[in-house]
Specification:
- By secondary structure, this protein is of the alpha/beta class.
- It folds into two domains: 151 residues, Lambda Exonuclease, Chain A (Alpha-Beta Complex), CATH 3.90.320.10; 56 residues, no CATH class.
- It is 50% helix and 19% strand.
- The protein contains eleven helices and seven strands.
- A five-stranded mixed beta sheet has the order 3-4-5-6-7. A two-stranded parallel ribbon has the order 1-2.
- α1 crosses α2 and α3 crosses α6.
- It starts with 9 loop residues before the first helix and ends with a helix.
């Protein structure tokens, strides 16, 4: 049975890049309860980008202690509300993050002053295949993604961009919208540093070529589970140059 959907997204293509089986797992998995970090990140996005509807989704309250009568009562109130619980402490962190964005000249311009829409659905064809997705922020000449992370300094963010496929994301959204792409990165921990990153034209061209390569591979795939996604031969595993064993051996 083919598991290929009639459209691609940044997340599904990123899963396919790892292996076709990861794509199958992505499109067929059951919804799991979000982690605490995911709840915090989603709440930060909602408060920063769509503050007017924050209270519709989130219940802000002190830390719940179910050992006490008041704690049990509060826990039931939260459960009955059908909303996601956010502690007072986490909401204070989110409020500080929003305040820092307002103090960063370019972040403020991109997130608030020039923005025309938030969580905007983006659709279009790339290399003959339909794509769907949602852009955090859309302005007259740009699209932007809000990234909350525990480490957003240039070195760390650059590593994350490579590991998590941020450049692929930028290429997808820039190609569909024909607008420049920016990342607004803000530290989820004190001191809540905020940095605006953008994709250089040459990096866009390289990412676009790689994007077309992945789409071509996806088109050729039959949509079936592959028992040998990395080849049928035994693979030789070598020590990496930064391995402690390798370094010790080289020192002898």
């Amino acid at each position: 049975m083919s598991h290929k959907r009639s459209y691609l997204s940044y997340s599904s293509l990123k899963a396919f890049e790892k292996s076709p089986n990861h794509y199958i797992q992505y499109v067929t998995r059951e919804t799991k309860a979000p982690s605490a970090a995911m709840v915090f990140g989603s709440a930060a996005h909602k408060w920063i980008l769509e503050r007017s509807s924050f209270d519709d989704k989130y219940f802000v309250a002190p830390k719940v202690d179910k050992r006490t009568e008041n704690g049990k009562k509060l826990a039931k109130e939260i459960q009955d509300s059908g909303k996601e619980y956010i502690s007072d402490d986490d909401f204070l962190r989110i409020s500080k993050m929003a305040s820092i964005i307002n103090q960063n000249e370019w972040a403020k311009k991109l997130v608030y002053d020039m923005a025309e829409g938030y969580e905007v659905e983006i659709k279009g064809d790339i290399n003959g295949y339909p794509f769907k997705g949602y852009a955090d922020i859309v302005g007259p000449s740009y699209v932007a993604d809000l990234k909350t992370s525990s480490d957003i300094d240039p070195k760390s963010f650059s590593r994350d961009a490579e590991k998590l496929g941020y450049h692929l994301q930028a290429a997808i959204y820039s190609t569909i919208t024909q607008k420049e792409f920016y990342w607004i990165a803000i530290d989820s921990n004190e001191p809540h540093n905020c940095v605006v990153y953008w994709q250089k034209p040459e990096d866009y061209e390289a990412s676009l070529a790689y994007l077309h390569h992945l789409i071509d591979k996806f088109k050729l795939w039959d949509g079936e589970f592959d028992a040998s996604p990395y080849g049928s031969e035994i693979i030789e595993l070598s020590l990496s140059p930064w391995s402690a064993i390798k370094k010790f051996s080289d020192s002898l």
